[in-house]
Amino acid sequence: MDGTTADRLATEEPLELRLDGRVLTTTMRTPGDDVELAHGWLLAEGIISNGGDVRSAQFDLGVAGDDSMNVLDVSLAPGMDAPPPERERLTTTTSSCGICGTSALDAIAVSTRYPPHDDSSSMTSDVVVGLPDLLRADQYLFDQTGGTHGAGLATCDGSMIAVREDVGRHNAVDKVIGWAVIQNLMPLTGRALVLSGRAGFELVQKAAMAGIPVVVAVGAPTALAVEVANHTGITLVGFVRDRGANIYSRPDRIIGCAEVERGKTVEAKSDEQRGERAGDPFSPPESGTGGWQARESHVGGGCETTTWTGNPPPTGMAAGLRD
Q1: Collapsing DSSP states into helix, strand and coil, what is residue 282?
Q2: Residue 92 resides in a domain
Q3: What order do you get walking across the sheet with 92-93 strand by strand?
Q4: 51-66 burial, b if ≥16 CB within 10 A, otherwise e?
Q5: 255/132 same-domain check
Q6: 97 classed as catalytic
Q7: 246 and 163 co-located in one domain
Q8: What pLDDT shows up at residue 302?
Q9: What is the mean pLDDT of the chain?
Q10: How many domains does the chain have?
């Protein structure tokens, strides 16, 4: 015995996505569910809005060698306009990419056909904190390799309806949303997107384009992701683990946070601040952040929150959910 052992590794190969023969993008992905990936990517880019917008999606069998399943050519349905050449992404996508600026955020809000702002769906805090376990139970590739991200679609009563995995977190999201596109489930009102890791800008943007009102992530969100969530009306929940969570936007959708006024953004306390100080209002933000003042603090119902007067508080503030 030489002390070595076999190990299973996640597969990573390039997928070139074409539209009627023209290259749109190349992404590094785990092979499988590629047609779903294409539908999800096209939806996120605003090129399609439902499954009927795609006439066909076929692998290019004219490519020689092992790459024959790494080129996917999509044709749009009659009457659908192809994106202009400047929309092409000629570089290889290897990880989440982002954009900055108010105009870019406005573009997201305008371009989505399914704005989540008016979605009146709600979820209980118990459902929210249980979603990562439901996702993890269906991450079969992760069980074998430990090297994939997971993304799931769940109902507001806590049923997981679809899970997809990939070496790229953005690909996993495209695959699971693409599944919904093909199933003609758009828009995804009353659904939650569940993420096995952090919530970056691109993942929240994809949720907005699909009309998903709630995003639940095991890891942390980025500041830009919170900004996008606030801008598009998505309830963004992060650090969902150990029966706890932080809510970064639209906490009114989470039952158990009923004390929070609709549309208000709230700030979390650290664990050290809980207990005897739990009823105290938070200290005001530092000077230069706009002069927001803590108006009222609530504890109870499984959720600890503080509402603010004045303009919305700085990006990244959250409500704390704790059992």
Answers
A1: coil
A2: yes
A3: 54-59, 71-76, 13-19, 22-29, 92-93
A4: bebbeebeeeeeeeee
A5: yes
A6: yes
A7: yes
A8: 39
A9: 78
A10: 2
Residue 187 burial (C-beta neighbours within 10 Å; 0-12, 13-18, 19+): buried
One domain, residues 182 and 229: yes
Flag whether 105 is in a domain.
no
Please indicate, yes or no, whether residues 173 and 65 belong to a single structural domain of this protein: no
Q: Quickly count: other Cβ atoms within 10 Å of residue 268's Cβ.
A: 22
Answer yes or no: do 284 and 196 share one domain: yes
Least confident of 39-43, 68-72, 199-203, 251-255: 68-72
Q: How far apart are CA 199 and CA 96, in angstroms?
A: 10
Question: Alpha-carbon distance 8 to 207, whole Å?
Answer: 31
Mean pLDDT of 243-255: 92
Q: Give the bridge partners for 126, in sequence order.
A: none
Of the segments 168-182, 243-257, 291-305, which one has the largest average pLDDT value? 168-182
217: in domain: yes
Minimal CA–CA distance to 40: which of 253, 236, 241, 202?
202
Set 97, 100, 257, 303: catalytic member: 97
Q: What is the pLDDT of residue 301?
A: 38
Residue 3 lies in a domain: no
Q: How far, in Å, CA of 25 to CA of 43, rounded?
A: 14
Q: Which residues contact 168 (CB under 8 A, 6 or more apart)?
A: 27, 28, 29, 30, 93, 94, 95, 149
Contact 210, 186 (CB under 8 A): yes
Residues 21 and 77 in one domain: yes
Co-location of 147 and 291 in the same domain: yes
Q: Are 292 and 281 contacting, i.e. CB atoms less than 8 angstroms apart?
A: no
Domain holding 158: CATH number?
A: 3.40.140.10
Given this model, what pLDDT does residue 313 score?
Answer: 40
Residue range of the domain that includes 309: 117-322
